Amino acid sequence: xxxxxxxxxxxxxxxxxxxxxxxxxxxxxxxxxxxxxxxxxxxxxxxxxxxxxxxxxxxxxxxxxxxxxxxxxxxxxxxxxxxxxxxxxxxxxxxxxxxxxxxxxxxxxxxxxxxxxxxxxxxxxxxxxxxxxxxxxxxxxxxxxxxxxxxxxxxxxxxxxxxxxxxxxxxxxxxxxxxxxxxxxxxxxxxxxxxxxxxxxxxxxxxxxxxxxxxxxxxxxxxxxxxxxxxxxxxxxxxxxxxxxxxxxxxxxxxxxxxxxxxxxxxxxxxxxxxxxx
Length: 278
Known about the structure:
- This protein is an all-alpha fold.
- It contains 14 helices and no strands.
- The protein starts with a helix and ends with a helix.
């Protein structure tokens, strides 16, 4: 596992934090786990030790769960090592599906027509000698898997799960437990990104490498969460001003996942990691 893989996982975690279904609820979560009320947030302009400690325990909780998920995913991947190439191709196509979902592309009314246009473009490039047979088959396979999941309504299920809300209140060291529950309960919201990293983790050689990927993902989510907890008042202003960039975050995250899926399916991600790592 190279530095490129860890960087991708870390970036995926950061994009999960900045996503429209996570970032807006972060202030409420921090207030919820720390017991710091709205009035106290407004009055406190400097570092909040209480909110930071609660945020740290919260991050520790979801990082533990995500890291264990990565180790488990790799262990399961070992069981299917005999069919690793086939699983990587299908898994990569699923990552592309997650990327298109995350970017909101599947909400477009002409999505299937645009998919047909993409297929026509690939065939034209192949006939013109600009695309190899191997790449043509891999990319066509990705598009067909995406179309299959779309027609079966998987994208609609994901969107319904993302609309669910989590309510409650807790303070003190209960933040650790809430962090663990966050990892499970909020997975439908960050599912496209998290699922993609888990699929990639299942392709690693050892459980330690898989755990390392999910730990990097946790850092991508956790570091800004800690900053938000310590500087909650300033973070509230950031959320208000950052709202206009939510669409850009979705597109950037979607593009990252699509590229990751294509690299996994074509087997080029390992080659890229070795090239940049060497």
